[in-house]
Amino acid sequence: MDERKAAILRAVVEEYIDTAQPVGSGHVARQSAVAVSPATVRHEMVALEQEGYLRQPHTSAGRVPTDKGYRFFVDSLVEPGPLGTAKRRQVGAFFASAHGAIEEMLQDTSRLLSNLTDYAAVVVGPPHEAATVRSVQLVGLGGRTALVVVVLSNGVVEKATLDLAEDVHGAAERLSAATVHLSSVLVGSTLTDLPAVPASGDALLDDICAAAVAAVETGHEQEAEPVFVGGASRMAAAFDAVETVRQVLSILEQQYVVVSLLRDVSDRGLRVAIGTEHGLEPLAECSVVVAPYEVEGERAGTIGVLGPTRMHYPEALAAVAVVSQRLGRMLSEG
């Protein structure tokens, strides 16, 4: 594609994203980047339509981009657009004050990303399979109940309660000893492949260690890969057709489908999947912008936004990039 056609196509895409109205040749001709007559623009727009980059929804209407047109536009972006000053401050304030359990923070992050883009946002939590144990702690809760707390390398905190053979008051020293013993064995291993804890010579301490390991393994087996969706209701304003909205909301409720969607797009090396590129027919009128986030240099999860194909791609790419970097940094710092 020559530069004149490219400039005309970019002008059509940008105007349609802003207005959601078919774009005429007269408007495009007034753009400084085009600088040719309306007649020339009309001729080039016909050629772009024949080549599959534009389509004309009605005979007398202007043109709108096709998925192929959006793909050219996205691929021609040298880098994500700038995130506005106010939105950068919003991101900074959020991560400066974020705290609490990782699940709560990831849910709040999905809401942040939705607020930044006005699209539905998805955050897939770190999978536990590859995460290693960073620390183990046993804490007495009173009576014969204790809490085992396992912090993983991806920032996830696993908690489980266990019953002891005697009151915690009498087992306080053994809880401390069990913490040391478990840490020496479990730190660096994964929850899916915990090593056997060797006998210590103290039967009660060994019982505490066995109960702690069993409680953690049981809790881990019951957990699915967490998915957090923010701003799903914003999709209702993005489409005119009620049936499209219903299908999109239905997909967002299916956790496995959402995880598979983001993972597939990311695994194919894409930052953006447009229309039918992601392979889900109910989302044929949607685009997905994704980015992985890393914890301690290793991929931990994925975040993304889901919106109409006429989404503001430069801003969506910028928001996803900034939030993924800040989220990974926060989880790495613990």
Q: How would you sum up this structure, described in words?
A:
- The chain is of the alpha+beta class.
- The protein folds into 3 domains: 3-75, Orthogonal Bundle (Arc Repressor Mutant, subunit A); 85-127 and 225-333, GAF domain (Beta-Lactamase, 2-Layer Sandwich), CATH 3.30.450.40; 133-221, Enolase-like, domain 1.
- It is built from 11 helices and 10 strands.
- The chain has helices at 3-19, 25-29, 38-50, 67-75, 85-97, 102-117, 168-186, 203-221, 242-252, 255-267, 313-333, and strands at residues 54-55, 64-65, 120-124, 133-142, 145-152, 157-163, 227-230, 272-274, 286-295, 298-308.
- The strands form 3 sheets. Strands 7-3-10-9-8 form a 5-stranded antiparallel β-sheet, sandwiched between helices. A 3-stranded antiparallel β-sheet has the order 4-5-6.
- Strand 4 and strand 5 form a beta hairpin.
- Helix 6 (102-117) packs antiparallel against helix 11 (313-333).
- It starts with a helix and ends with a helix.
SSE layout and pairing:
Elements lengths: L2 H17 L5 H5 L8 H13 L3 E2 L8 E2 L1 H9 L9 H13 L4 H16 L2 E5 L8 E10 L2 E8 L4 E7 L4 H19 L16 H19 L5 E4 L11 H11 L2 H13 L4 E3 L11 E10 L2 E11 L4 H21 L1
Antiparallel strand pairs: 1-2, 3-7, 3-10, 4-5, 5-6, 8-9, 9-10
Structural class designation:
alpha+beta
Domain unit count: 3
Structure annotation, total helices: 11
The description of the largest β-sheet is: 5 strands, antiparallel
**Judging from the principal axes of the Cα atoms, what is the shape?**
elongated
What percentage of amino acids are in beta strands? 15-25%
Distance linking N and C termini: 49 Å
CATH architecture of the largest domain: 2-Layer Sandwich
CATH topology of the largest domain: Beta-Lactamase
CATH superfamily of the largest domain: GAF domain
| Radius of gyration, CA atoms, in whole angstroms | 26 Å
- Widest sheet, order of strands: 7-3-10-9-8
How do the helices and strands follow one another from N- to C-terminus?
HHHEEHHHEEEEHHEHHEEEH
Low-confidence sequence ranges = none
Helical content band: 40-55%
Integer average pLDDT = 86
CATH class group of the largest domain? Alpha Beta
